[in-house]
Amino acid sequence: MAVVFERPHALADTLMHYCPGCTHGIVHRLVAEAIDELGVEDKTVGIAPVGCAVFAYNYFNCDMIEAAHGRAPAVATGVKRTHPELVVFTYQGDGDLAAIGTAETVHAATRGENITVVFINNCIYGMTGGQMAPTTLPGQVTATTPYGRTPKIQGNPVRVCEMLSTLDGVAYAARVSVDTPANVRNAKKAILKGFKNQLDCKGFSIIEVLSTCPTNWGLSPKDALSWLRENMIPYYPLGTYKDVDAPKEETK
Amino acid sequence: MKGNEAIAEAAINAGCLYYFGYPITPQTEISEYMAKRMPKVGGLCLQAESEIAAVNMLLGASASGTRAMTSSSSPGISLKSEGISYLVGSDLPAVVVNVQRGGPGLGGIQPSQADYYQATKAYGHGDMHLIVLAPSTVQEMATLTGEAFDLADIYRTPVIILADGAIGQMMEPVDFSTRKPRELPEKTWATCGHRGARKHNIVNSLLMEPEELERSIRDRFERYRKIEENEVMCEKYMTDDADIVVVAFGIAARIAKTAAQIARSRGVKAGVLRPITLWPFPNKEISALADTAKAFLSVELSMGQMVTDVKLACECRRPVDFFGRTGGVIPAPADVAEKLCAMARELSI
After folding, report:
1. Residue B324 in contact with residue B303, Cβ under 8 Å?
2. What domains does chain B contain, in order, with CATH numbers?
3. Are strands A170-177 and A239-243 parallel, antiparallel or unpaired?
4. With b meaning 16 or more CB within 10 Å and e meaning fewer, what string describes B184-223?
5. Once rounded to an integer, what is the mean pLDDT over residues B339-349?
């Protein structure tokens, strides 16, 4: 019988620790598919974050490094600058990338480090049990914003792709979502492009993936997908914010 | 050549072609020298956005099997302490230079040895040690830097060069050909792409099972035991007949030697034991001197930090006194000699 669907080779055959309905699994698969399609598993080094994806180093069959919280882009810089022939990616959540690691993110981006950053934005700190993230929406209830995020008190959320798209070193900044099969397909295209850019030495590529956290949002997996669509996409519009390959009018 | 430049050139001589830094006085010459030299030897000097980023770039370079270095001075080293702990937890070789200045806080920019506790006891969180080398001359800035890279690779640990602003800025002749490189293990653990030739490598400091974490720490401490057995370095100066042994490292040791000469000219038999490795500390050597000497004096550019280790090494068999200046003030040899004479009078030596 012909096999029509199987686990990408770059994705380890192991039990993942993610909660039911969490979209990390989908994004892991998309990253692994991209690595497989480009045939680069043997020369890829991934950098895992601190946060829910901390164990990502166990889930890919390429070499992996576990970085300190927020420092993945700096670690990736160290790997890539000493081994330009390698394919180097970071996989980071919103706290890791847009709070504690903001400096590392912005400066890796503006230096134009030739790396690929996969950024999971689910508007909440998952691993520590549902506290406010830098991307938590205004009004959103979390364990540390029990009365809803009030911008006057807790400040405003960060729109990462918009911010990074202003930097010269960024080759590609796109926001995608994994809430529908069509969006998953688009997310795959964006991630693949992010890796291809690196092979073509174009510079820094970031793919922000809007994701769900049913456990800490207190929603069923299905309702979480609806919540993402209804609340996150309006605040974090999908699209390509920068693409050095595209004519100017095609990007936001 | 300046001490700071000697460190930079010695690192390049040791095959370190990647330097990640962030400017801070009084070590900035290292960055500047690297920026000039690295492009000429096919290497890279990258100015990071912070000390935190620099040490993590070093971690990435080291994880992928490359010799690399970072340097800073006291306040910047505090920022690097997170990364140093991760380097230890991930069993990665690395060389980190601290050209100390006065603290706490922003402190000052003059020479200091006030980071002794930090360097030898708590450069990061967790159960850990680091090899700490304390150069006392510009020549040693070079020799010990070369040695640091080999020790780091052999024992898979960060090695600290604990210098100070005085030696960093001082100019002395240097011979870069004096050190014999050691035999080094292969870096089979490096994350540099599995090339289809092995299972994928993981560089990681997270172990969720307590027993597993304990096992990994015990393995590391087994390596520490070997370091303590094999790598202690110290210099003895006029200690054979000394009644009072001054224990001092780095710039303080140079002052101590002059002070010992002055004291001898006044009839006080003084000598100097200079730890070159601050960790591992020369406990055995100090303990042996406690058999013959009547007292010890720890001389430091601080309020007295190493003095606690000297006391531990003596095991209360001899009195241990302290003399130091802090905040960037350098003790005068005459003042140290006066202290030695006062001790001799007190002890009726």
Report:
1. yes
2. 3-185+218-230 (3.40.50.970), 235-346 (3.40.50.920)
3. antiparallel
4. eeebeebbbbbeeeeebbbbbbeeeeeeebeeebeebeee
5. 95
pLDDT digits (tens, 9 = 90+) for B78-100: 999 999 999 999 999 999 999 99
Average confidence (pLDDT) over A67-75: 98
Predicted TM-score of the model (pTM): 0.96
Compute the average pLDDT of residues B246-269. 98
Distance from CA of B21 to the nearest CA of A (A): 12
Q: Rounded mean pLDDT of A93-104?
A: 98
All structural domains of chain A: 24-250 (3.40.50.970)
Confidence of residue A250 (pLDDT cuts 50, 70, 90): low
pLDDT per position as a tens digit, A179-221: 999 999 999 999 999 999 999 999 999 999 999 999 999 999 9
The whole-angstrom separation of Cα B194 and Cα B203 is: 13
Say whether the peptide bond before residue B26 is cis (omega within 30 degrees of 0).
yes
Furthest-apart CA atoms within chain B: distance in Å = 74
- What is the C-alpha to C-alpha distance for residues B238 and B54, in angstroms, rounded to an integer? 42
Residue B205 and residue A57: Cβ atoms within 8 Å? no
Cross-chain Cβ contact B192/A71 below 8 Å: no
The confidence score (pLDDT) of residue B171 equals 97
Nearest 5°: the CA angle A225, A227, A229 is 70
Confidence of residue B246 (pLDDT cuts 50, 70, 90): very high
Strands B270-275 and B234-237: antiparallel
- Chain A residues within 8 A of B86 when measuring between CB atoms: 67-68
pLDDT digits (tens, 9 = 90+) for A140-170: 999 999 999 999 999 999 999 999 999 999 9
The SS3 call for residue A211 is coil
The answer to whether residue B213 neighbours chain A at the CB level (below 8 Å) is no
Q: Which residue among B48, B192, B201 places its CB closest to the CB of A86?
A: B192
Question: Which of A119, A127, A125, A128 shows the shortest CA–CA distance to A140?
Answer: A125
pLDDT at A252 over 70: no
Tell me the DSSP string of B24-90. -TTSHHHHHHHHHHGGGGT-EEEE-SSHHHHHHHHHHHHHTT--EEEEE-HHHHHHHHHHHHHHHHT
Residues 6 or more apart whose Cβ sits within 8 Å of residue A78: B18, B20, B56, B57, B58, B59, B60, B61, B62, B63, B64, B68
User: Helix or strand or coil: residue B309?
Assistant: helix
- Contact status of B193 with chain A (Cβ, < 8 Å): yes
Q: Please give the structure tokens belonging to residue A186.
A: 């688009």
Report CB contact under 8 Å: B192, A78. no
Interface predicted TM-score of the whole assembly (ipTM), two decimals: 0.95
Q: Which residues of chain A lie closer than 8 angstroms to B94, CB-CB? A: none
All residues of chain A having their beta carbon less than 8 Å from the beta carbon of residue B200 are 60-64
Q: Residue B211 and residue B290: Cα distance in Å, rounded?
A: 41
